[in-house]
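Subject: sequence -> structure tokens, single chain

Hey, anyone have a minute? Need the predicted structure for the following. Not urgent.
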Amino acid sequence: MKKRNVLLWMLAAILFCGAMVLTSCHDSNDNKDNPTPEPTPAEELADYTLFIYGHAGGHMDQIIENVYEKTKPLLTDKKKVRVLFFYKYGHKIEDYDFSGKYADEDEVLRFELTSTTDLSKLRTEACFEEKSQFQLYSQENLTEQLNWAAKTAPAKNYIVILYGHGAGFNAKDDYYKEPLPTTRAVLYDEGFQGRGMNMYEFRWAIEASDIKHPQMIYFHNCLMGNLESLTTLRNLTDYYVGSQHVLASFGDIIIEFVKGLLQTTDIEAATKQMFGHLDEWKAGYSMLGPEDKCNGDLFFMKSLAIEEVNEQMARLCSRIREIYPTQHEAIDRATCKVYRPCQGAALFDAADYADCLARETGDAQLQTISKDLRASFDKAFLAREHVNNRPDFLDAYTLSVTLVDKTTFAQELKDDAGNIFSFGDSYMATAFHTNTGWGHWLAENNQKPTGNPFGMDEEGEDETDDIPGLENLKEWRAGTIVTQEAVDAFGLEMCFMADYISDDVWERMQGKTYKENPYIGRDDLRHVKVLHWDYDEQMHVGEMICNKQIAQTVYGIMRQLFDAKYPIERMVLPDVYDADDETQMRDNNSSCFCYRSISGTTKLSKHARGLAVDINTLYNPYYKDREDGTRYVQPATAVDYCNRDWDFPYKIDHDDLCFKLFTQAGFEWGGDWTSCKDYQHFELIEEQ
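Reply:
Had a minute. Here:
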């Protein structure tokens, strides 16, 4: 929460308001069940009613109040624009003091703002709930407030604005099921530990209300410019305004939007006018501290134009699946180069992905699809602007799309209600997958997106320098102990990956684990990064070099071992030990690649090809009984652990989780060999 709060202290404050419905805290609830009134004559309808629904947090409430004050003088004519507001105030969080001056902590205000509204009386006269436990994420609650808006300020056109924290598509939170648990992907509430509303609940709430088809849905929350969410909601409205980045604003966007609506009844003209006055919005990004610099975008589009975009995404999906068996290396490279708007999310710029794929593969069909996809976005967007504060940016941002590898896609998830499902179960239920088949590509993709350029750090890196162990993760110092706080700050998903070998790691390997040879090169290997627990339940940074043929499988197994708190004492590259096998085994190190022969022979080991993994080597030794009755043991200090009849830490046997996971994945265990025993050793079974 801490990282997000600092960066989002200026998160788009879209609040505006209108002619105050002054109700007391106690009396306001009496009107909840009133029947829908008779239709209002057209001549009495406002041109537009804006309904703002949301919450940002106690340290950010001052931004909303700034919007009250600057929007108030504009709202003089109820026949043109009326602005209704349903806003839940926050409270003191960690190091942030409560900043609201027109309401108390956790109070909910419901009112219409006009030029005559007395802001000083909001606390008493616009209070909807005092010291509230109001659940913003409730579908029924949103429907109720939409009905209130339709009754209070009937209009020819309605605009629904979600204000607050958004997360884009999130497989755990956007799982499609009934009844839905409380989730958070579209709008969430810090007062309920990040619970919120997902895209299905939002859609159903509007469909059940008296405002069944708002002319515009304005996402004044972060990361909502994603194809999954917008495709789900495309038939609900005519227009979208949103961003695929974190959205930062002092509220100036809304002020300009209201000005445009007051000057014209044409919503396209009014919104385009707003896009012509975004200097203050852009300046807001530049006012962030140097450590918080981030990129941003804002788009205005027709909702149904997403259909043509999805047609091109379906073509893209079909083509990459078709050529992946023969072009997997080029496609994997593209997956690691596509632009990511926010480091912590699995969302990536869709058109840039198509561009990267076309460029890396040189495939003529992908080049055509890439151009056609760009053209469909150009047609869909009626206006768009961007801010580039980081060295990694795009000349033209589009919409984001989910991109994960097949291991993540198969990952088991559990929601707040205890429902167990996979990432894929959630994704396959989206309308975007139904339209494009994109989930089929995610289920086949071997490459986890790593090393991608990004528009900002995860939810904005800020006060993290004092977190123990965080630098160990940022610099990936294998063998070090890290805290849960450091992992939370860095991002757990970023701690498990199979990446291309960087120049500095490759340099470390030279003359040690890697020697020039005609059989295997740098492109055949991958750098696997993981976390692991030791026997004392301390969390360590770990790494291995593996053949690309098994790298995804290995990091997937390591993730399952981590989740089960399976103990692995040490996992650093053998280069730390100058590739001396005896020394690293005595240190109980777990490893994979080392270009060497099988002990006592001239035959290359499967470790020389990166196709064998050794786990907890001291406690699971190699031994061979010689004809003269002596026993050869590696490491030499592990003689006692050759006896498998007694229990000791780190022991691998047939009941062991590590044994089960590796053998289920197609590996052979050295502990089952008859001519010798190699209890630490798992090697890939290859077809003859």
